[in-house]
Specification:
By secondary structure, this protein is mostly helical. 50% of the residues lie in helices and 7% in strands. The strands form three sheets. Strands 1-2-5 form a three-stranded antiparallel β-sheet, covered by helices on one side. The protein has a three-stranded antiparallel β-sheet with strand order 6-7-8. Strands 3-4 form a two-stranded antiparallel sheet. It starts with 8 loop residues before the first strand and ends in an 8-residue tail after the last helix.
């Protein structure tokens, strides 16, 4: 299966970009032959729905195309969702309110330069001709009622559909006719007001008083005070006593900077599901992997909204139900290191020269691969080890992997016995001679806690870079640090390690398993089942 990422389609002959998307399978039968109106820049385009929807973005510039596409695609997704929910019935007040949106949009955009009054006089005449059925092709229709209906549709239908589209509304035929009639009246008032403006009359607009605000059940929250994305994030931060520093560092710029930059505003109340869909497609269009968009961007957004919704401060979570399809790539090899790769790394680590490296940077290259190989730990669980995290318990040397030191999954501490080879090769000498604090990096009390990467993570990246560049493990199908974790599982199975103890050592929570495994001697026996490495 190939993952189809929504993005602008470039016509090879003209160079013009298009929105070209297949109709969802569940809507194909009901939607085929209908029309959809989509925003393209400052205008709207009406397109017939077939097996696909195709709309010109009217640009040959790739950057402009991506921005225009994101908005149009979000509107199309909102249209599909409205179709799934079925047509909505609007009351009279809602129809007038929607016409008011048309009135305000036209007058606000044109009043500063309304051109000549004769233009607006002609608009009024053309509007009246449509009401009489005496305009364009409609004049040829037989039957007065049919002729008027056709003329009104040609004159006011596109604007009506554009307004409904901007609100994500799919309405029944009766409601649409009600809105169309109100839009026709509003456009008369638009022409009258702009004619007065063209004649130099900018006195207060009395027409505005008659239009109620558009406040459907879906948009009622707009009346409330705005909530910044910063406030949204801070509430998420405080709802739990302790958040993982790595998660905070990664999510904060997403919620507080990248999303507001995309939206053009910082009001979390205004965010809609359609906009989240547009953001999702924008991120995919930027080359961010579908897995990252799903597990980082959308997950972060959904999580930070949860607290506000739970406390009834916001009505809905706009990220809820926004899906990102992730393709499972075919596995071409095991994700753990081969025997040859593992031996190459461990030999290189054992004989790595200090050179110009700092003492702790050298220590990381010397010991982190070995620690990962014999504990199955995640690399940052080892790079964040402190002197006090290595000690004896019941006569057995252990490493304490704890959230107190940094990021740990699933946020629970565990003690892992050290394999005899680590002790025989001198790891404890490093610990004994180390100062208080981290073993593999220097503690900086002035470090910014919101920095994008923790010191332990930076050490892990340095080790990974060394494995790739110096040792020469360049196969992208195996991760330069995480490959140890997969290899640990493979070897543990081969030597018959107890599965429950193995899962505890790895930091996998099992039902009924305590946070602390009391049988340290039993864990040590399982660890010693791992064969020593002749390096």
């Amino acid at each position: 299966m190939v993952l189809m990422v929504a993005r602008p389609h470039r016509d090879t002959k003209s160079g013009v970009y298009y929105l070209r998307e297949r109709v969802p399978a569940d809507l194909l039968a009901s939607a085929r032959g209908t029309f959809v109106t989509l925003p393209v820049g400052q205008t709207f385009t009406r397109a017939r729905v077939g097996d696909v929807v195709k709309v010109s973005l009217r640009t040959k510039d790739n950057g402009d195309a991506k921005r225009l596409f994101a908005v149009a695609h979000a509107a199309l997704e909102m249209h599909w969702e409205a179709l799934r929910q079925g047509p909505r019935k609007l009351n009279h007040k809602e129809a007038v309110a929607l016409a008011g949106e048309v009135y305000r949009a036209f007058t606000a955009s044109i009043e500063h330069d309304p051109r000549g009054p004769e233009i607006w006089a002609k608009v009024l005449r053309d509007n009246e001709a449509a009401r009489q059925g005496n305009t364009g092709p409609a004049a040829l229709v037989i039957g007065s009622d049919e002729r008027v209906a056709r003329a009104m549709e040609l004159r006011f239908g596109p604007i009506t559909d554009a307004m409904l589209s901007t609100k994500g509304l799919h309405v029944d035929s009766e409601s649409r006719l009600r809105v169309l009639a109100q839009v026709a009246r509003a456009l008369d008032e638009v022409a009258g007001q702009l004619r007065r403006n063209a004649e130099g009359d900018y006195s207060p607009d009395d027409n505005l008083q008659r239009y109620p605000s558009w406040a459907s059940a879906d948009q009622i929250t707009v009346k409330k005070a705005s909530i910044s994305f910063d406030a949204l994030f801070e509430k998420w931060l405080k709802r739990k006593e302790r958040r993982k520093p790595a998660t905070v560092r990664r999510w904060r710029p997403i919620i507080c900077a990248r999303l507001p930059e995309f939206l053009g505003h910082s009001d979390a109340r205004q965010l809609t599901k359609a906009q989240v869909i547009g953001w999702r497609d924008h991120l995919l269009g930027q080359g961010i992997s579908a897995r990252t968009v799903r597990t980082v961007y959308i997950a972060a957004l959904s999580s930070v909204y949860t607290g506000w919704v739970d406390d009834d401060l916001l009505p809905v979570n706009p990220a809820k139900g926004v899906r990102v399809e992730v393709q499972r790539k075919p596995r071409e090899r095991e994700r753990g290191f081969t025997d040859e790769e593992a031996l190459s790394i461990l030999e290189a680590a054992k004989h790595v020269a200090v050179g110009k490296r700092k003492k702790k940077a050298h220590a990381a290259l010397r010991w982190v691969p070995w620690l990962c190989a014999f504990t199955g730990a995640r690399v940052n669980e080892m790079t964040q080890l402190r002197k006090k995290d290595v000690f004896q318990e019941k006569g057995i040397w252990v490493v304490l992997i704890t959230p107190e030191a940094g990021t740990v999954k699933p946020d629970l501490p565990r003690k892992v016995p050290l394999h005899d080879q680590l002790i025989e090769d001198g790891f404890l000498d490093l610990v004994v001679n180390a100062g208080v604090g981290p073993l593999f990096y220097d503690h900086d009390p002035k470090r910014n806690p919101t920095a994008s990467k923790s010191p332990a993570a930076n050490v892990g990246r340095n080790v990974a870079g060394w494995v790739r560049e110096d040792v020469g493990i360049t196969d992208k199908r195996v991760q330069p640090n995480h490959g140890w974790r997969h290899r640990f599982v493979t070897i543990a199975r081969e030597v018959g390690m107890d599965s429950e103890k193995r899962e505890y050592i790895l930091g996998h929570a099992l039902p009924g398993m305590s946070e602390e495994y009391g049988d340290m001697r039993g864990l040590h026996r399982e660890i010693l089942k791992l064969p020593k490495v002749k390096a």
